[in-house]
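Reviewer comment 2.1 asked that we show a complete input and output for one of the modelled complexes. We chose the protoporphyrin IX containing FE case, as it is the one discussed in the main text.
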Amino acid sequence: MTDTFIEIIRFVISFCHVMAASTWFAGSLISLNINNLIKINQSFERIFDHFTNWTNTIISTLVLTGVILILDSISRIDSKVYIFILILKLFLFIWITLILYINRYKSYYFNKRNIYNNFIKLLIQSKLIFPITVVIFLLSELLNIIRI
Ligand code: HEM
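Response of the prediction step:
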């Protein structure tokens, strides 16, 4: 009975995590082509605005469900490769979160032209969000394979 209950909780948490991840994937794919899409149809702008309003919720859901999944898997898994891939995944996640928030609240500081700022600008390009998300999906599948 308790085992079945734990399995149901595990399923619900994984489901919420994958749903939030898929929404993130779709949003980041649309953001790649948003300028062209708006040229085709103006309503894409409103749809994308809706998505931007949801980003905080999506990120919070990913972190909350992700932490629960980590606590669940760490107690059962004793693989260094698993831990390494998990850390890599978290690093990439922090990277895309930084891209998002630095671009949203970009200060006048980045308008100054110097080598350091140019390098930071390369690392925080919005265009990077989609490819990094794809790598995160690949790493998540690897985690799943290692766990089994
Ligand atoms: C853009 C962000 C993220 C994406 C796209 C993503 C994607 C996914 C996907 C698709 C899975 C399911 C793999 C499967 O069962 O087939 C998964 C599992 C998981 N995710 Fe995430 N995730 C993201 C962020 C996070 C964060 C922030 C954390 C931790 C705080 C996290 C921790 C985990 C853990 C521990 C699992 C279970 C891995 C396993 O099967 O052992 N994820 N993720």
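Helices lie at 2-32, 34-40, 43-74, 80-104, 115-123, 129-147. We note this here for comparison with the apo prediction described in Section 3.2.
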